[in-house]
Predict the 3D structure of the following.
Amino acid sequence: MAAHFPIYLDLTGKRCLVVGGDTEARRKAAALRRAGAQVVSSSRFALRDLDGCALVMVAGADLALGEAVWRAARARGMLVNVADRPELCTFIMPAVIDRAPVTLAISTGGVSPALARRLRETLDSIVPRRLGALATLVSEFRLQAKRQITDATLRRTFWERILDGPVARLALAGEQEAARKRLENALAAETRASAAPREVA
């Protein structure tokens, strides 16, 4: 079996169809909405439902309906996923750990969803709850750091120190303002240091 290619899709403003009326279908629709998609949900299916769609998902539907959606979506070259039917999928859904804007996705290629869920539970207990807050803070200073620390190696080293040091610890502890001030001071100090003339041996 060929390995799946891992990818994250930008679905902002894209029309996506979810066919099915059970809890799983509603969960998938909610996840698509969180990703910014324009979701059309239906417990039935008509070919016109596919008009303008970038992606189609089926959950909680009978086999005949799942196959009908699969054939129609594939005929239009659309991405399609029929839950629990890997042979009717052009993509599979990973187990996800959400620390927005950080997302960790775990997949076994459809071989063992139970193992993927177990791995998610294990990692979910390890990955810091406020990791997203740290990522958001770093993103606020990313362009500024790129402008002020022009050497790519120095800039990479700077961010490694930030992510391993007190700024990260403060952000992960929920002390966002203190972390921001530390980061501002660290960036200013690094900018001065990188701009200072270097002695020639």
In short: The chain has two domains: 1-93, 131-195. The beta strands are 15-19, 38-42, 53-58, 79-82, 95-99, 102-106. The helical segments are 23-34, 63-75, 113-124, 131-148, 152-164, 166-172, 176-195. The two ends are 59 Å apart (CA to CA).
